[in-house]
């Protein structure tokens, strides 16, 4: 008798988890790892006082694999290539350590296994983008709250990456195709950054998860190039609390059409949205006239559910008379 699909799925998941567990090594002798500790969840180094203690803890010559590594809130300003010795981790959280230097080669032994890497809350000014591409199974990368000021062109090339967090960095520019090679991307967050103009192709992502969310809220965005969102179709684009005064048809109408097609394909029509509250849309001049043409397209209109002019006029009430364009720009 054939097993139901869900039963087969559960059995397969159990087998995968069992295999992953079987690959893990037992904890090293406590004395050899001190001041770090180890249990079935992984290795925790929150009691480390300096880099020398950290390197001593991982000085063993035997290659051992562990679920995760936690180094959080300790006074370590640099991670060198040999800091973790022969140790292998499935996840690594090196957070709030005032790191100014992190050599990704320190995790070379983990390249085939690492699924999550968080360098949250440090003082990194840049990362080795070529080296990040080595981690082909990486699903989550958290670089939030560092001192990164620029994302270069073609920066990320990780086929499995689903979540990329770059919040609260002083990022002032994003290069063309920076996120192009992230075909599994489901969520990218760049809250509270300093970009004033989104450049052409900065968010071009031809292949991505259909549930993609692009979060660009609480920033300083003043303008957007017509090609900034070329060949991307997120389910959600959040531009709330920026400094936009224009809402350009050449920027947003093609994007909205693409988002609608994507939503239809995944049976989520009506859920696609562009969030814009807290901007400074003037709603003056014929450049806003295209909004009045959306009245016969509820699928597009509903995307702009929270759009408001600076005088709090909602998108539903934008007219050519209101914007001072009596002939609709013709």
Give structural notes:
There is one protein chain. The longest helix has 19 residues, at 5-23. The chain starts with a helix and ends in a 7-residue tail after the last helix. 35% of the residues are buried. The chain has helices spanning 5-23, 30-33, 51-57, 129-132, 249-265, 298-301, 320-323; strands at 37-39, 42-44, 65-72, 78-79, 88-95, 101-102, 116-118, 140-142, 150-151, 163-165, 173-174, 187-189, 197-198, 213-215, 223-224, 236-238, 273-275. The protein has a single domain (69-323), classed as Ribonuclease Inhibitor (Leucine-rich repeat, LRR (right-handed beta-alpha superhelix), Alpha-Beta Horseshoe), CATH 3.80.10.10. The strands form four sheets. The chain has an eleven-stranded mixed β-sheet, with no helix packed on it. It has 330 residues and is α/β, with parallel strands linked by helices. It holds the Pfam family LRR_8. Residues 1-22 form the signal peptide. Keywords: Leucine-rich repeat, Repeat, Signal. This is Putative membrane glycoprotein lig-1.
- What is the averaged pLDDT score? 93
Low-confidence runs (pLDDT<50, min 5 residues)? 9-22
How is the largest sheet built, in terms of strand order?
1-2-3-5-7-8-10-12-14-16-17
Beta fraction of the residues? Answer: 15-25%
Structural class: alpha/beta
CATH architectural name = Alpha-Beta Horseshoe
* Total DSSP E strands: 17
- Give the C-alpha Rg: 24 Å
What is the CATH level 1 assignment?
Alpha Beta
Helix content range of the residues, please?
10-25%
Q: With helices defined by DSSP (H or I, 4 residues minimum), what is the helix count?
A: 7
- Topology as a string of helices (H) and strands (E): HHEEHEEEEEHEEEEEEEEEHEHH
Principal-axes geometry comes out as: elongated
**Total domain modules:** 1
CATH topology heading:
Leucine-rich repeat, LRR (right-handed beta-alpha superhelix)
CATH superfamily: Ribonuclease Inhibitor
Pfam families: LRR_8
Organism: Rhipicephalus microplus
Keywords: Leucine-rich repeat, Repeat, Signal
Signal peptide: 1-22
């Amino acid at each position: 008798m054939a097993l139901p699909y869900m039963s087969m799925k559960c059995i397969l998941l159990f087998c995968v988890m069992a295999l992953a567990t079987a690959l893990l090594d037992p904890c090293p002798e406590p004395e050899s790892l001190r001041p770090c500790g180890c249990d079935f969840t992984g290795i925790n180094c929150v009691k480390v006082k300096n880099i020398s203690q950290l390197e001593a803890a991982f000085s063993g010559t035997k290659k051992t694999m562990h679920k995760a590594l936690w180094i959080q809130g300790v006074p370590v300003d640099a991670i060198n290539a040999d800091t973790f010795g022969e140790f292998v981790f499935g996840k690594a959280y090196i957070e709030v350590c005032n790191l100014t230097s992190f050599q990704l080669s320190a995790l070379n032994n983990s390249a085939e296994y690492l699924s999550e890497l968080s360098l949250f809350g440090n003082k990194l000014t840049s990362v080795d983008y070529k080296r990040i591409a080595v981690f082909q199974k990486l699903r989550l990368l958290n670089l939030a709250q560092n001192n990164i000021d620029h994302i270069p062109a073609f920066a990320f090339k990780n086929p499995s990456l689903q979540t990329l967090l770059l919040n609260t960095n002083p990022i002032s520019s994003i290069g063309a195709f920076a996120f192009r090679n992230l075909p599994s991307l489901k969520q990218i967050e760049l809250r509270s950054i300093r970009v004033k103009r989104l450049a052409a192709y900065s968010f071009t992502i031809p292949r991505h998860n259909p549930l993609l969310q692009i979060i660009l809220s609480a920033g300083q965005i003043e303008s957007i190039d017509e090609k900034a969102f070329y060949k991307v179709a997120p389910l959600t684009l959040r531009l709330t609390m920026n400094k936009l005064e224009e809402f350009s048809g050449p920027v947003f109408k093609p994007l909205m059409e693409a988002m609608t097609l994507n939503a239809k394909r995944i049976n989520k029509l009506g859920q696609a949205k562009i969030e814009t509250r807290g901007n400074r849309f003037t709603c003056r001049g014929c450049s806003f006239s295209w909004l009045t043409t959306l009245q016969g397209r509820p699928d597009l209109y509903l995307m702009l559910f929270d759009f408001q002019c600076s005088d709090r006029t909602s998108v539903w009430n934008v007219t050519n008379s209101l914007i001072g364009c009596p002939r609709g720009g013709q």
